[in-house]
UniProtKB/TrEMBL annotation:
Keyword entries, A-Z: Magnesium, Metal-binding, Molybdenum, Molybdenum cofactor biosynthesis, Transferase
Organism this protein belongs to: Porcincola intestinalis
Any Pfam family matching the protein: MoCF_biosynth
Name of the protein described by the UniProt record: Molybdopterin molybdenumtransferase
Domain MoaB/Mog: residue ranges: 177-314
Length: 347
């Protein structure tokens, strides 16, 4: 840094905060470290007694914190996101639409293992709404070596295959078919209380229910009902009831008999251990997601279904390994005031 006269400081970058005191009214920074001085700033600086200033001296091979923050921004930002203007080495990213937020955790760690810089994000694989804050970047020192930023960029792009660290997948309109199983409902002994709960959850997203069938404890009837939903154009079929291992709970068998690829029957999530996820390929080359939902979805505030539904609605194909990884964080604590997805459940 170097000391210059304030009257000559236009375009220079402050190396320190400049404090202003207005008796009885204000005491604080009039200008912060890293501020680029404008012509209009000079009279203000002189009025608070700053005739000389320490400013950053541009050197070859060094980047100002805001320039370096822009490098982190470009590594992180994906489609459907907006970035704030750099300020004091910080940039914030926000969502431009409703969707599923995802993070390349390995690439994020590459950045955060590199001294003098960081990116902090919300949890990946969670739903966000337009305008939500997604991430913030920060360069720690006022200046940083340009080569360090270039080296980091090369490592991150190699790790991601050139993709951004963060991505936002817009939710897609989905047609939903519901198949309710169980002789007690089919024969009218009890009222179907599961479907209204599903409908309320689906209303949180861009969905429409195109059909609803109720079946007996007969796997063939349930298989036929699933195919009927597919024929009605359903993109997702949700089967309720009959998901335990009791001999008369045959919904998993009915789903398997459709020819669907079973990703998992069982998940390390509580509530939701008896969840089934599968993908059914139709003759028209459509992929229909078929789920078997355990009874907990009917009475628990948040379950495995809440973790899976945003991914299904964003066309984000789910693997068995990803479901296995839910074991860490897969225990819902049943808080009296639920703040999901802004908590640790499922992440």
């Amino acid at each position: 840094m170097k000391l210059i006269r304030t009257v000559d400081a236009e375009g220079a970058v402050l190396c320190h905060d400049v404090t202003q005191i207005i008796p009885g009214t204000f005491k604080g920074p009039a200008f912060r470290k890293g501020h680029v001085i404008t012509k209009e700033d000079i009279p203000v600086l002189l009025s608070i007694g700053k005739e000389n200033l320490y400013v950053w001296e541009k050197k070859e091979g060094m980047l100002h914190e805001d320039e370096a923050a822009a490098v982190l921004r470009d590594l992180a930002i994906g489609a459907h996101m907006s970035a704030s203007e750099p300020k004091e080495g910080k940039i914030e990213l926000t969502a431009d639409c409703d969707g599923l937020f995802k993070v390349d955790s390995g690439a994020l760690r590459l950045v955060n293992r590199t001294p003098q810089m960081m990116i902090a994000t919300r949890h990946g694989n969670t739903p966000v709404r337009k305008g939500d804050k997604l991430a913030g970047t920060r360069i720690i020192p006022l200046v940083i070596e340009e080569q360090k930023m270039n080296d980091l960029s090369a490592c991150v792009r190699e790790a991601t295959g050139g993709r951004p660290i963060l991505s936002l997948h817009p939710f897609v309109h989905k047609r939903i078919g519901i198949v309710t199983t169980g002789s007690e409902v089919y024969k009218g002994r009890i009222k179907d209380s599961f479907t209204p709960i599903l409908e309320r959850k689906l209303q949180e997203y861009d969905t429409e229910v195109v059909g609803h069938e109720v079946t007996d404890d007969d796997d063939r009837m349930t298989t036929a009902a699933i195919w009927k939903m597919v024929g009605l154009g359903a993109d997702v079929v949700l089967c309720t009831g009959g998901m335990s291992v009791d001999p008369d709970d045959r919904t998993p068998l009915a789903i398997r008999n459709t020819g669907a690829e079973i990703v998992t029957y069982g998940a390390p999530v509580l509530p939701g251990a008896m969840f089934l996820l599968s993908y059914l390929q139709t003759e028209g080359n459509r992929t229909v997601t078929v789920c078997g939902l355990p009874g907990c979805v009917m009475y628990a505030k948040r379950t495995i279904f809440d973790l899976m539904l945003p991914r299904i609605l964003a066309n984000d194909r789910i693997t068995a390994d990803e479901i296995a990884a839910l074991g860490e964080g897969g225990l819902c604590l049943g808080c009296s005031t639920c703040i999901w997805p802004n908590c640790g459940f499922g992440v």
